[in-house]
UniProtKB/TrEMBL annotation:
Keywords: Membrane, Transmembrane, Transmembrane helix. This is MgtC/SapB family protein. PANTHER family: DUF4010 DOMAIN-CONTAINING PROTEIN (PTHR39084:SF1), MEMBRANE PROTEIN-RELATED (PTHR39084). Residues 191-400 form the DUF4010 domain. Residues 18-142 form the MgtC/SapB/SrpB/YhiD N-terminal domain. The keyword Secreted does not apply. It holds the Pfam family MgtC. The lineage of its organism: Bacteria, Pseudomonadati, Pseudomonadota, Gammaproteobacteria, Oceanospirillales. It comes from the Bacteria. The keyword tRNA-binding does not apply. InterPro entries: DUF4010 (IPR025105), MgtC_SapB_SrpB_YhiD_N (IPR049177).
Amino acid sequence: MDDVASDFLTANEPAIRLGVALLLGALIGIERGWVAREQKSGERIAGIRTHSLVGLLGGIAAMLSQTLTDWAFPLIFVALAAISLVAWRARLTQHHDYSITGLVGLLLTFCFGAVAVGIDLALATAGAVITAVILDNKHEIHGLLNKLQAHELDAGLKLLLISVVMLPLLPDRGVGPSQVLNPYEIWWMVVLIASISFVGYFAMRVGGAEKGILFTGLFAGLSSSTALTLNFARMSRQNREIEAMLAAGILLACGTMFPRILIYAAVISPGLLPRLLLPITVMGLMLYLPAIHLWRRHRQALKVDIPTPIQNPLELRTALLFGGLLALIMMLGEWLRDWLGEAGIYLLAASSGMADVDAITLSLTRMSLERITPSTAVLGIVIAATANNLMKSGLATVLGTRPLGKRVALPMVASMVAGLALAWLG
């Protein structure tokens, strides 16, 4: 039975591909026809019938190029473009609409039909669906663009610059002392941390800080828990009635550091994840649970309007500094490992973790692949996370109110003790 079906599909493959080309045109035509449904018949340049036929025409053009002459597809495409331009030009005399989106959609429909017949059905289908979605969400896309701020657009372009432009240009090989530095891998880690910060920023931007301190704290942890700690600590002196909720926000932001660590391990060194999972999970839970407890007792603070505690998380200078710090930590780690053994790694983790836990985490995760043992990497990462959270606990105690400092410090210390114990025993 399967052989019969397979033979049938093989024998009728050209007809099936042409049918798909027709259906893809109809898909885009349905969307275009819906947008212009209020117009009278004949006033629409291209609706469901035209798009369906254009998709079929694209498929036939690809088939003719395969069997008759290579010039069939480009000549038919140029002819279609010329006819469409004449129609759009004539329409401008009655409707002063200078948008060429519909024209581009029609030409894409022709191309999707050709791709379905001559290249790949799945690729053509995906392209047609995405095109229909983009055409159908005109107002939503324009609305997002109107809400976009200049520095956010700048951040997005910089993220593309450091990822799709700079990353492929870097050599993927070891350089420097003992070949410890791999420019491609170092910059790939820079892109990873920058992307997570970027996502965290826009999660807050879309949700809005008015949703509450907890929401702000949770997503600020993806971007800058230190900045949030400073902001909330100062705020506690001005708004003592919500200091418990501010403490909950700090704990959530600091706790969100631990899922980030697991993500780094899963992406860079999956073999390290089983050893890291228990201590990191326990440390995170020992911050999340007190935060939830404080939230349940002080829910009214969720209605307080809290200003966004972070700025644009993606600055190119920051990315470059992070890359330099990462390279420095990797070189120091190699040097301290040769000089002091495991003790040197732990010393580096403690000192580096106070400034930035991401850089040392990425460095140790990378080093666990070939230069240090997994157990050393796990304990080093836990030490770095502990030093980082203790530093933020100190900031909350010094800059904030005394009750805020106590509410933050006690869970931090408990998390530190549990994490170090589990990492040492593991």
